[in-house]
Every structure is written in C-alpha cells, then in structure tokens.
Target: Glucosamine-6-phosphate deaminase
Amino acid sequence: MEVVIVQDAKAGGELIAESIAGLLRRKRDALLGVATGSTPLPVYQALTAKVRAGEVDASGARIAQLDEYVGLPAGHPESYRSVVLREVVEPLGLTEDAFMGPDGAAEDVQAACEAYDRALAESGGVDLQLLGIGTDGHIGFNEPCSSLASRTRIKTLTRQTREDNARFFDSPDEVPHHVITQGIGTILEARHLVLLATGEGKAEAVAQTVEGPVAAVVPASALQLHPHATVVVDEAAASKLKLAEYFRATYAAKPDWQGI
Model:
C-alpha cells in the first residue's frame, strides 16, 4: 500500500481533500464514503474550503455512511447520520438526497444491514472511502477478529471502543453497545481506500496495519489486500514504522500529477 507521512493533521487533511477534489473533477457524481470522529475533520474542513473558494464543484457528489449506532433515537446529535449531515453534507452545500446510510433505528436490524449492503452495490459502488483506525486496529466498527470477508452487519462494541467514543457523550453509560458497520469485505469493494491516522496513540496500530501480517486481529491490515489503498499519517502516528524513511523517499519521488 502507499504510505504518506505528513507534518501534521492539517497537512493530511489538505492532501486528502485535494485527492477528493480531483476525483470530483473527473467524476461529478462520485460516491464518497465518509468516516466520523475527530480524525477526518481536517479533511472535511479543507474540502469545504475548496468548494467555497470555487476550486471544485461538489454539487453532484453523493455521500455514503460507513457505520451507525443501533438504538439511538432519530435525530440524536451523536447518531452518525446526524454527524455526517452536520460535518459533511451541509458544509458542502448538499441536501439529504445526496446521503445514504444504514437505518440504526430499524425494527429488523439484520434486514437493514442487508438492505444497505445492496444499496451500496446498486449505487455503482464507493469511489473513495475515507477511513480512520482505532487504537486496536479496527476500521469502521470491525473489531479485532472480524472476518476479512464480512459484509454490512451488526456488531457489539468492545469496551475499549466504547471508552474511546465516550468523549462524544455526556457519560460513558450513554454510548450504545451495538452498531451497524460496513464489513471488511464491503469496505474492500471501494475503488480507493484512504486511511488517515494522527497522533502517537495510533502509532502501534498503524505499524501493525502497514508492516505486520494480514490478520483478523488487526482488521485494518486487510488494506494490504486492496489494489489502491493509501495510508496518510502524521509524524506521531508514523513513529513506530520501521520503513518510515523508505515511505518518505518513495512518495517524494512520485510525479506531482499522480496524487494519492
């Protein structure tokens, strides 16, 4: 996979936003898979700035959700639907018609999972999927030992992930125990996977993802199987990469027009 080491989170956000902008210039109705949390915010902020400056037209873009909590009431501010609408759809000047995601409040959650998996396929597929990574190496909510061929499904969150996400809620007890997530097999069907990781706390997971074996215990390592996967990390998140200097030299030697 391609590994790009940048100075900080802002630089990573700019780099990925330009890649998305290039995609939208080539394909006006591109389907963008988005992640939530604090890590991808610099990407959305940089892309919004490009739209507002007239550097790219995002009006035809479509947005696909990676995962959703199960059981939060409709309109809950921390449902991932609400977060994506607030942080991505609205700033880009899009409407809810451009958005697609799983129904975490469905009476039949399994049916909702299957319906979303079908909807992604019928949409023509995700053109670029933005991913974060957990401290335990999870992507989406595919926790350690998830099947590398898994489809969109319901998952039980680990204690670590619930603790990591507690900062978004008034108390840890409010964090749901279950989520709908695109499976690893579903994620791998996107045409371009872009994983962004920042901070020293992600360094071990990044090293295992990039330089370790492909293993279910590190779900993000499945990106090694993808023909077009890019990992963008800041200096802190790259601190445990044994091949950091090689990655720097390789990216520095790429033609400017090639992008990520």
Summary: The helical segments are 9-26, 41-52, 80-89, 109-122, 159-165, 184-187, 203-211, 244-252.
